[in-house]
Amino acid sequence: MELLQRIDLPAQTGANAAAPATADRPATGRREHKRPETQAPAAAGLEPAHDLAALLKAALGPRWALLHPHIRARFELAEGQAQAEYVGDMHQVRCTRLGALFARLIRYARVLPHHNADDVPFRFDVEPLRRELGWIKTRTYHFAQEIFSFRSRMTLGAGGELLEHFGGGLGMRVRLEVLPNRLVFVDDGYFLHWRGLRLPLPRPLWPGRFVLVHRDLDAEQFEVCIDVAHPWFGPLFHQEGRFQRLRG
Question: Residue ranges of region Disordered (predicted)?
């Protein structure tokens, strides 16, 4: 079972990053999704402290202008919106036997599902933090066996790097790459976090190289592809699906 889909990332960012191109046309025969009920707008006096796009703007700097307009729009909140909500299907959720074992070992952190399944209904919610620049991200997989949901907190570090904090004390530094029609999230190392302290994890203890590709299809739809590959044991996880943002 081939899990990892190769993606070539540029060696340098900034002025050398690729400019956005016209969006690829989506494949035909896509599934239609009924729109679930959305959450009510934030109550008076509890409006978000910032727009979701502010975190990406701060992390990307001048490269924000290179990001495809459809992708930029997906992380912008309209007036009165408290969060962005995305729904769709994970067409493939795959893990090797070793990947499933690893997912079970860190199940307390609820970071990775250990299932292999097709066409899994999926929901992804992103809301801004109230007191600092950052996001709360909630992912929910509706497997036949169970509903697997987990949250993480993404913030901007003192040096301007993106930091993602998962449950159980696991954290990940995140590097962003802007490619034509794509925004790519790549791990830049892992750490343990506790009460504001960060302890870098040695490379042999890393869960694996994490790559998430957000690929624009059109103004409404986008694809997400996730791969985790260990430097010694090879590909462990692969997921891919098609989604859209709920409006209104």
Answer: 14-44
Q: Which sign, positive or negative, has the C-alpha torsion 16, 20, 24, 26?
A: positive
CB 123 within 8 A of CB 87: yes
- Global pTM value: 0.80
CB atoms within 10 A of CB 135: 23
Amino acid at 20: P
Task: Please state, in angstroms and rounded to a whole number, the distance separating the CA atoms of residues 154 and 216.
Answer: 22
**Residue 133 pLDDT:** 93
> What pLDDT is attached to residue 113?
94
Cα distances (Å, whole numbers) of residue 107 to 113, 138, 167, 195: 8, 16, 10, 21
CB 64 within 8 Å of CB 58: no
Determine contact, residues 167/111, Cβ cutoff 8 Å: yes
Q: Give the single-character DSSP code of 16.
A: G
Listed in order, strand segments (DSSP E) in 167-233 are 170-179, 182-194, 197-200, 209-216, 221-230
114, 236 Cβ separation under 8 angstroms? no
Burial class (CB in 10 A: 0-12, 13-18, 19+), 13: middle
pLDDT-flagged residues of the chain (< 70): 1-49, 248
